[in-house]
Amino acid sequence: MSEDFNMFCYQCSQTARGSACTVKGVCGKDALVARLQDNLIFAMKGISAYNYHAKELGKTDAEVDEFLTKGLYSTLTNVNFDVGDLIQLGLDAGEANFKVMKMLKEAHIEAYGEPVPAEVKVGAQGGPAIIVTGHDLKALEELLKQTEGTDVKVYTHSEILPAHGYPELAKYESLAGQIGGAWIDQKKVFSDYNAAILGTTNCVLPPKDAYADRLFTMDIVKIPGAAVIEDYDFKPLIDKAIELGGPEAEELSSVTTGFGLSTILSLAPKIKELVLDGKIRRFFLVAGCDTPNPRMNYYREFVKEVPEDCIVLTLACNKFRFNDLDLGDIEGIPRLLDLGQCNDAIVAIELAVALCELFEMELNELPLTIVLSWMEQKAAAILWTLLYLGKTDMFIGPVLPAWANEDILNVLVGNYNLTPVSTPKEDLKKILG
Question: Which of helix, strand or coil describes residue 259?
């Protein structure tokens, strides 16, 4: 990175040349402080997303709200130039994110039951169809209620796949299956399938002309030209699906999702026995965001290279890089366990804590390696939650968000021994010896 762009700050009228401070702030702020403030803002954006969904389901936490106010205020011009305190605020963001993710998980379970493993059909089954993308389970539930008794089939796309594991959502006959993979395929998938489309949260892209007239959004999600659903009244969306007639039926495949915490903990005695007998050597959590960059093929190759005596846990849209792989099982324990969407990252954290108790080990002593793909704001919040809990020695990459420059990496590597990924074989050799 050029020295001229170690920082970029344009939040006040003092900026250099009236445009932006790119070396050092006129106010005295240096590049590292600027980046740590950016880091804090991105983490708080992630916390806000989880907080919003929790409030949809009637859950609030005053401490989370208080932190968001304090954290944002700390990034104001001439408030906080202390590098140590800004790192602590990052950890505080991790704590707030832990609370809000736990709150959201509890709200989901209260409303929809605890997830159980579900085999999900992938592909169109014929007839009028709605494809739902995003993360919002409440929106999906309201849509499923309104499509019952019609011929309209509802398909999940990308991060809403784990909805199939919730008993109170899976009970609806109109919930048909999954179409497509991660958010990055939406322009092709939505063009190819003659279906009405509902965007419920972030990850919706401006549409191609091929489907612009059948894209609907809702709530705070707005796309220029797209019809907006108000107050969960999905009649216009359902009418559009019926008018379109739907895609032709195609050959189906399947993926499995819905490995909630209770399901995995019910296997704890067997898991402990297999670990002690040397039949399970290590657990890998391979999780995070997906991007179109070809370097993201790293994760598929990594999972394919993981030895047969290891278990792969996954969540968020990164899993679509490899969740079609048949990794088999170890004496009945599936080697690939999908814990859910990015909103379910708390499940992986609680599972790690449970493994600590199961094996009477500290977090960093567990036979567990975390390999993250780190892109958007919720991922930043989750990373700081892991750091807040004391997890070190994680692998991150291969494509980092642009704001995570060398200054941020130096903080993360120096304080928490995060390792940028290299190649799957080299990284597995480092991990397994």
Answer: coil
